[in-house]
Structure formats: C-alpha cells, structure tokens
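Entry 14. Ran structure prediction on the chain below.
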Amino acid sequence: MKPSMRKELLSQVEGLMNQYCNGCFLHKFIKKADGRRAAHRFCISQCTVGEQLREYGKKLN
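Output, structure tokens:
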C-alpha cells in the first residue's frame, strides 16, 4: 500500500472517531451499566461506525 493511501485512510478513521465516537452517549451508558469491556464489545461488533472502522482496518492490513 502506498504511504499516501495509508495516510488518507488513517485520516478518514480519525475523522470518523472524532465526529461520532468522542462523547458517544451509547458508549458512556453501556460502560456505566455493564462495564468497559461490554461497551468496547458493543462498539466493535454492533455500532455502525465500528463496522466502518473495521472496513478501514481491513484495507490497512
């Protein structure tokens, strides 16, 4: 993968996380109710933003 393409993908990932993940109400609620691991599991497996982040991760590998 070209360095410029990798840099662009990382920029997109950062933009998504800044826009949607920072201060996420669902993450905070699940973390408070069920713990940090459950909140992280939700973000990775069920959140639509998490799905997009996984796709970017596949492209980076």
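The mean pLDDT is 94. Will compare against last week's run tomorrow.
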